[in-house]
Amino acid sequence: MIDVHDAPGALPAGHRVYAIGDIHGCAERLWALHDAIAADLAERPTDAPLLLHVGDYVDRGPDSAGVVARLAAGDPIPGLPTINLMGNHERTMIDALEGIGPSATDWMISGGREALASWGGDPDAPRNTWPAAVPAAHLDFLRGLALSHRVGGYLFVHAGIRPGIAIEEQSAQDLLTIRNSFLYSEQRFGAVVVHGHTPRIAPEVRFNRIGIDTGAVFGGKLTCAVLEGTTIGFLTA
Question: If you ran DSSP here, which 8-state letter would residue 125 be given?
Answer without folding.
Answer: S
